[in-house]
Design goal:
Length: 479
């Protein structure tokens, strides 16, 4: 199949969260199955300045309508190995910035113009290069309008650009909401600014474009596919989604087992596997030493995440007394909401021997935290899929996670299934989290239990090849 993905970030070029990991690994797997895969990305500064981009070739100049202007862009192509091409759409006014969406406090004021233009530019690029896809697959609000623009362009030019369109929801909480008057940048007829179009409570919603105007909607775990049909998790979009529920599919993400393999990971000070965990102990000592924590016989709890409400940081902060009373350690690696950064740092200052907080984005450090910790914490309030719980199981670091979204689908609860369990699941609330922490301590201290849970996790196969097969089947059944 000829498959085109349109996305806003992709590992290793640019990453703010799991979307980038998923885009990178899914495209790689699909191309390895023999499909011809193209990936569209905005020409962010980090991509343009990457050494790989020096090899990119300018393919075409774009003139893309945005309200009453035509704005120029440049489309570059960069082959990424066999059967994978990355198309980068460059317009420095929009994308030559230090971060893709804004600062921790505030989104860029022109995100409406930037991403409406980007969606149109993708379609115009596909048209001019005559890419003719079997599958056009867009991800999240940043590309939410592209499936609609594609159909509009097909009609306007009397041509076919893609057989079927797919839209992935990675996080319902980010909807690309803009004031109603931003609708003018779409140049769509006004009927699209209505309830069965992209209008959303007197605003416009770019994610709604993806929901209403793609042939199939995918979200990143089967459990989250059910959750987003409810008011609790649907973020106001549950009504719109219900009208499309027969086209909504949940496919749990996989992980890139080449990047995340404790046996070969060159970001770690030592490698290890289930049959020889010596290297894991080295990673643990390294982590303790690097962060200036005191040695302990008790567990190190690690958490790597964006510091946002979603990730349950209030629940974590509610357990200060657990971490003060018990002789265990806590390592937080995360960047985000200054409110949480401040609270966590203040907490760490009270017990620097026990709690370390690193407010940086550091890929190498994230591998060390996964490998060097004894438990991984994910007290998320909601979690469409989550990747860290899969990384941590593979790294022999059982997760303690909320029983929501993809965490429910990818963690086997050890208390329910002591023979196969890989972690502890709990309802996302303070008392349940406290219970799980206490139980994790007794499991850690009891002879053999922790080791069994750890081994069960390390044996699980989270590789993308399984998930990518589900995508492949969905694509081929649809076209
Ligand atoms: P989300 O996409 O909601 O942020 P995921 O669990 O799907 O959550 O993916 C998060 C990804 O971002 C993981 O690969 C995680 O290791 C990484 N990550 C989050 N914060 C940091 C950080 N401060 N430094 C390095 N990697 C991070
Ligand atoms: C989102 C979700 C996360 C998911 C990731 C990749 O950012 O918050 O749960 O794993 O996308 O799909």
């Amino acid at each position: 199949m000829k498959i085109i993905h349109a996305v806003s970030e992709m590992f290793p070029f640019l990453k703010t969260g799991g979307l980038a990991d998923v885009a990178g690994a899914l495209c790689k797997s699909l191309s390895r199955f023999g499909h011809d895969v193209s990936i569209f990305l905005p020409g962010y500064r980090k991509i343009i300045e990457s050494p790989e981009f020096a090899k990119a070739k300018l393919k075409v100049i774009l003139q893309v309508e945005l309200g009453d202007e035509y704005l120029r862009g440049e489309l570059y192509a960069l082959p990424l190995g066999k059967r994978q091409t990355m198309y980068v759409i460059r317009r420095d006014e929009f994308f030559d910035r230090s971060s893709p969406y804004g600062s921790a406090n505030r989104d860029y004021d022109d995100n409406d113009r930037r991403f409406i233009w980007y969606c149109k530019a993708i379609v115009e690029g596909m048209r001019l290069l005559e890419l003719k896809a079997d599958v056009f697959h867009c991800h999240d609000w940043q590309t939410g309008l592209a499936p609609l623009f594609l159909r509009v362009a097909e009609e306007e030019y009397g041509t076919s650009l893609a057989l079927k369109t797919f839209f992935s929801i990675h996080n319902m909480a980010f909807q690309g909401l803009f004031p109603s008057n931003s609708f003018r940048y779409t140049n769509l007829p006004s009927e699209f600014n209505e309830l069965d179009g992209i209008e959303f409570y007197e605003q416009i919603s770019l994610i709604k474009g993806g929901i209403f105007f793609s042939d199939k909607i995918i979200t990143v775990s089967p459990n989250y596919a059910k959750e987003i049909l409810t008011p609790e998790f649907g973020c106001g979009m549950e009504g719109a989604l219900k009208t499309r529920s027969s086209d909504l599919i949940g496919i749990a993400n996989g992980i890139d087992t080449e990047v995340w393999d404790p046996n070969t990971d060159d970001r770690l000070p030592a490698n290890y596997s289930l049959s020889n965990l010596e290297g894991k102990r080295t990673c643990r000592s390294h982590l303790i030493e690097k962060l200036g924590l005191a040695e302990t016989e008790n567990p190190i709890y690690g958490i790597v995440c964006r510091l946002t409400e979603q990730k349950g940081l209030d629940i974590l902060l509610s357990q200060m007394s657990f971490f003060s009373k018990q002789d265990c350690r806590l390592v937080v690696l995360g960047l985000g909401d200054p409110k949480f950064e401040r609270a966590l740092k203040r907490w760490a200052r009270t017990r620097p021997d026990k709690i370390a907080v690193c407010t940086v984005l550091d890929e190498t450090m994230s591998h060390l935290v996964e490998a060097g910790s004894d438990y991984c914490l994910m007290p998320s309030i909601f979690e469409p899929c989550g990747l860290n719980q899969m990384y941590s199981q593979r790294y022999g670091t059982p997760p303690l996670a909320s029983n929501v979204g993809g965490l429910h689908d990818t963690i086997d609860d050890f208390r329910e299934n002591p023979e196969t369990g890989t972690g502890l699941l709990f309802e996302p609330s303070e008392p349940h989290f406290k219970n799980a922490l206490e139980e994790s301590l007794s499991i850690f201290r009891s002879e053999g239990e922790y080791q069994r849970m750890q081994a069960n996790g390390m044996k699980r196969d989270f590789s993308w090849s399984n998930a990518a097969k589900e995508y492949e089947a969905l694509y081929s059944d649809s076209i």
